[in-house]
Amino acid sequence: MENIPDPYASGNRNTIHIAGRRNFTVSMKTAETLPSRLKGKLNKSISARSGKTEIDVPIEMRTLAFKKEYKGIVVETSETVSLFSITYDGYTSDSTLILPLERLGRRYVVGSSAPYNPKLSVLNSQVAFAATEDKTIVTVTFNIADGHTLAVKGKRYETGHKMEFAMNQLEDFQISHNRDLTGTIIESSKPIAVFAGNNCNKLSNYGYCSHLMDQLPPTNNLDKVFIVPPNLRSSGSVVRVVAHTKTSLQIQSDGQNTKRTLEKTRHYDLQVKDNAAAVIKADEGVLVLNFAALLTRRGNGGEPYMTVVPGLEQYLHQYYVAVPKGYDKNYLTVIIPSKAKNSLLLNSEPIATRSIVATSSVTVPAGEEYVTMVIGVPAGAHQVETRDGTRFGLLIHGRGNGDGYGYTTNMVGPGMV
């Protein structure tokens, strides 16, 4: 997605990070209509050793608002891997897990954040999507905050209005607005990939704006029970719950119990302290986003980042993941039943006590106690698993030089990663 343009920044880059347990081959393919200069850099096969592999992607491949282009990239590997991407402009970055093609869907609800200052287009809310097959029809049903409208090619759209596209394989389109697009529904005749966030945004009066980006799970993979872990080294979180259909919510946070009813396409926000976890239960599947944010002047967390929070049914018992270089600190956040925490292994070894930098305990509505553990790790590939097969959630984040990134390691139903 489009990041904030900064003429003074150096080191602008997009990178793909791949973690594989065994040696593997990576093949990359782009659209036939892509300029030959870009095709020459991207259409290639790479032999990679086990561990983490990093591939640079030209910044010209970032999507641009209201332009239909062929910037999709197909990445195919000879072995099962996990893959995430990160975009960096020299001062601000964010990252996202990349879902395999077979886990994409045909209906999505958008989650973003309200631009801090609607007068600055660099803070715009945005959503981008790419087709995986030819002759794909995409329908966007807008939900635009504050009663505002969107003008595209002489036509004006407001909440409830539909925009339709005919798209071919690897063709993309991005929508951008100076009002929040959260709750917009994206539907398609064939599976598509959908990404959302903000060009750059800040969620409070403190700190600076940061690029916000995540791939979204389809609505048929949204879960109902979530544990939102603390964001280490920030002064808290803004947690956003987005409904794709009417649902009732129960929220436990900071010793308080809250009940809300969300209508279709509506959302609910709560602020969570930096040392606290929250529990969210919904009657229907919902999208839960966690924005690490500088909520008070005392915080030292730097710029915000955006993470899709996995539901309990999306936890796995084993992960093999990549942690990027270039950040001062990197962390794994584990969400695991308390009774199984001693079964947790990092790179085939028990978790060293000295590497655990924070813990928090919560009880889910069913009565089971969970513990969240924030574990410091170096850049590279890491295998995280349980000896007894207990499933757990895993998120990754890091900070450096006022910047931060974060991504979840799974956001769909259980499967091999």
Shape: globular
Termini distance? Answer: 24 Å
How large is the radius of gyration?
20 Å
Topology, number of strands: 32
Mean pLDDT: 91
Unreliably modeled segments: none
Which structural class best describes the helix and strand composition? mainly beta
Strand content: over 45%
Sheet bearing the most strands, described?
Answer: 7 strands, antiparallel
Helix share, percent: under 10%
**Count of helix runs:** 1
Describe this structure in words.
By secondary structure, the protein is mainly beta. β31 and β32 form a beta hairpin. It is built from one helix and 32 strands.
Brief sketch in words of this structure:
The protein has one helix at 36-42; strands spanning 13-20, 24-30, 44-48, 51-57, 73-77, 81-88, 93-97, 105-109, 125-131, 136-141, 150-152, 155-157, 162-167, 172-177, 185-201, 210-215, 223-228, 237-243, 247-253, 256-262, 267-272, 278-292, 305-308, 318-323, 329-337, 344-346, 349-350, 356-363, 369-377, 380-386, 393-400, 403-408. It is mainly β and 417 residues long.
Topology (SSEs and partners):
Elements: E1 13-20, E2 24-30, H1 36-42, E3 44-48, E4 51-57, E5 73-77, E6 81-88, E7 93-97, E8 105-109, E9 125-131, E10 136-141, E11 150-152, E12 155-157, E13 162-167, E14 172-177, E15 185-201, E16 210-215, E17 223-228, E18 237-243, E19 247-253, E20 256-262, E21 267-272, E22 278-292, E23 305-308, E24 318-323, E25 329-337, E26 344-346, E27 349-350, E28 356-363, E29 369-377, E30 380-386, E31 393-400, E32 403-408
Antiparallel strand pairs: 1-4, 1-6, 2-3, 2-5, 6-7, 8-15, 9-14, 9-15, 10-13, 10-15, 11-12, 15-16, 17-22, 18-21, 18-22, 19-20, 19-22, 22-23, 24-30, 25-29, 25-31, 26-27, 26-30, 28-29, 31-32
